[in-house]
Amino acid sequence: MSADLVLFTAMAPRTRRPQGEVTRGTTAPNRLRRVDRWIAATQRAALRAADRPLAVDLGYGASPVTAVELYTRLRAVAPGLEVTGLEIEPDRVARGTAFLAASGDAYPGLAFRRGGFELPVDRPPVLVRAFNVLRQYDEDAAWRAWDDLRARLHPGGVLVEGTCDEIGRRAVWVALGPEGPRTVTFAARVDALDRPSGFAERLPKTLIHRNVPGERVHAFLAEFDRCWAAAAPHSAFGPRARWAEAVALLARTQPVLARPPLGGRARRRLGEVSVPWRALAP
Question: Which residue of 37, 45, 67, 155 shows the fewest CB atoms closer than 10 Å?
């Protein structure tokens, strides 16, 4: 048994009851496409950090569809990656298992099992995606969940935790390594975006109640709105052009942001911007 697995096994809670609360289970095809494509494009080092890399889709919902999509999208850049979908509700696990049984051998390395924040898997995952899971928790519980999940990652792994709207047009997520939060990413279908402060309702639970005057996240969204308004003339070239100009203006007015903004032009054209956690941290 490897040293990593010995440590991981020792850390696992000695209980059969999954840790966490059952979510509403709302899901739909392509709801998480924005975060999936971001993971595939920016987290390849993490996905390949282990000899037998494992990704966990934590709280995938009433349908296994988003776990299957995660598997398909990430295997395109990390062919040996295995994916385990974890759910607290036994009926949801049964649906995933039935899907695999009906699919024959179409998804080697994909599995579904019952579990929660304790991550009942056989080795430290290189990725944990937890989307629309912590919305029902209070801020203190969300911080504890982050700590628990980070502690169970592979040393080269990443936790991606966030939330999106019902059809995936607007999303915010945080990328965390074993050491702590790294970046916050805002992603939207920009032709449906009224103004950047509309992201406020999708902020992670560790930040959503901090969106008040005097907090960094509030100042950031207010400045993003100002830059969005200033970039309005670029709408003549389409909503993506306006988004790109607003992000460029934001980078010039916010010294804490990377220059160019994290992710560069390619990510901006997809309606994304990632900023360092320290830019928004409470």
Answer: 45
Q: Alpha-carbon torsion 51, 39, 82, 11, what sign? A: positive
Contact 95, 62 (CB under 8 A): yes
118 plus 67 within the same structural domain: yes
Cα-based distances in Å from 19 to 57, 66, 162: 15, 21, 19
Task: Look up the domain containing 69 and give its range.
Answer: 3-178
167: number of Cβ within 10 Å: 12
Same domain flag for 65 and 165: yes
- Residue with structure tokens 């709105």? 225
Q: Give the pLDDT confidence of 92-140 residue by residue, as tens digits.
A: 999 999 999 999 999 999 999 999 999 999 999 999 999 999 988 999 9
Q: Does residue 183 sit within a domain?
A: no
17 or 143, higher pLDDT: 143
CATH of the domain at 45: 3.40.50.150
* Confidence (pTM): 0.90
* Sequence-separated contacts (24+) of 135-140 with Cβ below 8 Å: 135/23, 135/163, 135/205, 136/21, 136/23, 137/21, 137/205, 138/205, 139/205, 139/206, 139/209
